[in-house]
Specification:
single chain; DNA-binding; 274 residues; two-stranded antiparallel ribbon; alpha+beta; 8 strands; TATA-Binding Protein; Endonuclease III, domain 1; six-stranded antiparallel beta sheet; 12 helices; globular; Endonuclease Iii, domain 2
DNA sequence: AGCCAGGGTCTGC
DNA sequence: GCAGACCATGGC
């Protein structure tokens, strides 16, 4: 059976490694929400994405075959063999439990400037408030697409502002970091495009030229927008995981895909509250 | 009410 | 190199 079907301008996905809540609301993306009609909506590349589950299939509404293969195929990591990865990680008992809890997590390949800003906003912050700040950021400085839907602001637009212009979004001390990020990205001092292919340590160094981007935020950017699966963001939850579940370090089976293992463990830690 | 949050910077040893 | 204060804000 084919993994994808294309019908009436909708893309239909059949995969047992894709759960909408587990993927869109697991702390990697902050712009999706489950609406009252059961449809997940969010803005990606200035397009309102509508996704819902229909029996065993997932429907990407108004996404044509061409749009899917041009962009969303990689956005949703369908070029990644999740069943193989899960099989590899099953070698570890704890990871097996984590994966069985949330087998439908996928790491997204999100837009880079959006991911940089999102994880700068995330610093010393909680997920509900991160969403609020990002939402106000888009409302104030993005383009209106439809009622209550806005594109993510461009680096060029934000580069022309100053920190006090961001007061309405109530980002606190993070506002000045966003301005610094936008200016360095708009000027080319920090090249986001090279992050996917260049040496991983120079990718990290490059990102940390931005004020407010340290080790944890740079790992998140590389993992959630560049598919650098060896990156391993260490937040307070993952510190708990490491001290209580892996005092001797990560198991061998995670080698090269530490970031994917991390996302299962992050969700597991927050759900079972270890 | 007070602790905490997908941390980083700055200062002082 | 490393510990500790400090940072704005609001969710719970």
């Amino acid at each position: 059976m084919a993994e994808f079907e294309f019908l009436d301008n909708n893309t239909i996905i059949k995969s047992n490694s894709f759960d909408l809540r587990q993927t869109l609301d697991c702390g990697q993306a902050f712009r999706f929400s489950l609406c009252d009609d059961g449809v997940w909506r969010g803005v990606v590349k200035s397009k309102i994405l509508e996704i819902y589950k229909d029996n065993n299939k997932i429907v990407l509404k108004n996404v044509t075959k061409k749009e899917f293969y041009d962009y969303f195929y990689k956005y949703f990591s369908f070029d990644v063999d999740y069943s193989g990865i899960k099989q590899t990680l099953f070698a570890d008992e704890t990871l097996k439990k984590a994966i069985e809890l949330s087998p439908g997590i996928r790491i997204l390949k999100q837009e880079k400037f959006e991911t940089v800003c999102s994880f700068i906003f995330s610093q010393n912050n909680n997920i509900p408030r991160i969403k609020g700040i990002i939402s106000r950021f888009c409302e104030n400085f993005g383009e209106k697409i439809a009622d209550e839907y806005y594109s993510f602001p461009t680096a060029e637009k934000i580069a022309d502002l100053s920190a006090c212009d961001l007061a309405p979004i109530r980002a606190g001390f993070r506002a000045k970091y966003i301005i610094d990020a936008a200016r360095k990205i708009a000027s080319g001092e920090v090249d986001l495009e090279s992050l996917e292919t260049c040496n991983i340590d120079s990718a990290r160094e490059n990102l940390m030229k931005i004020k407010g981007v340290g080790p944890k935020v740079s790992e998140c950017i590389l993992l959630f927008s560049c598919k650098r699966f060896e990156c391993f963001p260490m937040d307070v939850w993952m510190k708990k995981v490491m001290t209580s579940l892996y005092p001797n370090g990560l198991p061998e089976c995670t080698k090269g895909i530490e970031g994917i293992a991390q996302q299962y463990l992050f969700d597991y830690a927050r759900t079972v509250k270890i």
